[in-house]
Structures are given as C-alpha cells and as structure tokens.
Amino acid sequence: MLDSRWLTSFYNLRFQEKVGNLEYVLQEKYQNWLKEPVLNDYIMMSSFWGRNNHFNDNPEALYRYIEKNYPNMTTIIVLKDAIRSYPEYPNAKIVSYGTADYWYYLARSKYFVNNVNFTEPPRIKREEQIEIQTMHGTPLKTLGFDVLGDWKDSTYNEVLRKNGNWDYLTVPSDWVANYALKAFRVSPQIIKSGYPRNDKLFIDYKM
Prior knowledge:
By secondary structure, the protein is α/β, with parallel strands linked by helices. It has a single domain (4-205), classed as CDP-glycerol glycerophosphotransferase, N-terminal domain (Rossmann fold, 3-Layer(aba) Sandwich). Helix content is 38%, strand content 17%. The chain has helices at residues 4-19, 22-33, 57-69, 100-108, 153-163, 174-184, 199-205; strands spanning 39-46, 74-79, 92-96, 109-114, 130-133, 168-170, 189-191. Helix 2 packs parallel to helix 4. Mean pLDDT is 83; it is low at 1-18.
C-alpha cells in the first residue's frame, strides 16, 4: 500500500514542475495574458472544483452538446490534478487548477461554464468574457447566503464577487430562479431551460 506522505510529496513536486513559481505566474504572466485578445472560440469548463479529477453534471452535458454541434470550438476542461490522459474527452484540452495553463486560459477564453465557482481570488473576469452558471441540483436545502453563521465579512465579499461573474444562470423553474437570485444575491440573465444533464433522459426515453 502506498504511503500517503509519499503521494503528497509526489503531487507537490509535480505541481511545482507544472507551475513553477505561482506568484511569478500571477504577477507577471497572468497580467500580460489579460492584455492579449480574448480567444472567441475557446470555452473553459469545470464541475465541482474538478475534485477527484472528474468532469460531470451539467457542464459535461453542455460539453457533449458543443462537441457535437460546434466542432470549431476549443474546449478547456479543468480538473483538480490531471495526472493521466482522458480519452473520454478526445477533443478537449485538459488542464489542472492553479497551473500556468489554467491561468492562461482563464485570462483568454471567451466563455466559461461551471456548476460551482472558479475558486481563485486573483481571477479577473474581463468585460468581454461570458460565464454560465448551471447549478447542480434543485435547492431543497438552504444554500448561498441563506446559510446563516458561515460567513465572515472577507468570505462574504469574496463569494459575492465570484457570484457576480455569472452572466447567465440555467434553472428548471421560476421557483428555482427566484430562490437562487435571492440566495446568491446576483442578477444574471435567467435561462429557464432545465438542467442540461436531464436532456439525455428526454432524448433516450423520448419523454
């Protein structure tokens, strides 16, 4: 059985190999990339912070649709730590959170899709960039700023800033739309299309 300390050291070394000096990337390279033109046919996608190196839920459903209907688009899929090849996404470029590639495409991609938030506080969303928030379920619990007692001032302001990056919000109903706008304290354009992941049910079972 592998020692967890060895695995941690391995991932840390590998991260350093990929990223190098992260402070340098942020202060020098990222700022320069923000000055370069936006790549209008690039779309960056992730789900659940890329945890367990999985890509799924509503963003994956949109990826499958784009792959089939817009082959000219270049898709960037973000995982926690992409340590293998991903033949299940043959036409996508896979990058890891926090790497230089990640910050490059964060600076230059035109479109963004996520079912949570892109997490890094230093991110600067450019005026011409468009972000779609798909959510990841029907809110049958408290969420966002309705979760009392969990918010310090600094955390509140940071999450509010991230939520403010959303240009579009996909929802299955007026009720979800109204609740999400209140809980997340945002005002994106609402797309009442249902959740993209459920489209397959209607197609496969002709519902």
